[in-house]
Amino acid sequence: MKLLILSDSHGWSDELKAVADKHRQEVDAIIHCGDSELPRDDRALEGMNIVRGNCDFGVDFPEDFIKTVGDFNVYVTHGHLYNVKMSYVSLTYRAEEVGAQLVCFGHSHVATSFQENGIVFVNPGSLRLPRNRKEQTYCLAYVRDDQIELTFLDRDGHEVTDLQRTYLR
């Protein structure tokens, strides 16, 4: 399974659509971790699985969801309800509660990934307003039988090599 993971595009429609269209044919699902600041019917969100962020002011998106593919569970949330700018503890508890193997979140605009208690967590960074680095980033996650490989890219599709990680499942 291959996932395109984006977050925090903050009103960008054309730029978001360009990234999604670049990968649409090669991925099994597109996940947006919130703060799109776009209405559900915006053409950029076509075919995306999306959650509501703290800057999304409608009721068009759920607070979170679980996407199950076979026996693999992906939990998606924006992260503001779990205070991810301060700590990941609440988010790790929630991931364990829902039986997630992969957690996708945003909110902090900081591209990162880590593994805790066998669960892989990924924040793709911000497509529009990155923090702690200059690159506007998103992530491709390759889920295989024995590993999860994360490839972070900048908005132009160039790999951001210092963020690349492979985690054993």
From TrEMBL:
Domain Calcineurin-like phosphoesterase: start-end pairs: 1-145
Record key words, sorted: Metal-binding
Extent of the signal sequence: none
GO molecular function: hydrolase activity; metal ion binding
This enzyme's EC code(s): 3.1.4.-
Superkingdom of this protein's organism: Bacteria
The UniProt record lists the keyword Acetylation: no
UniProt cofactor(s): a divalent metal cation
Family per similarity comment: Belongs to the metallophosphoesterase superfamily. YfcE family.
Protein name per UniProt: Phosphoesterase
Organism for this UniProt entry: Halalkalibacterium halodurans (Bacillus halodurans)
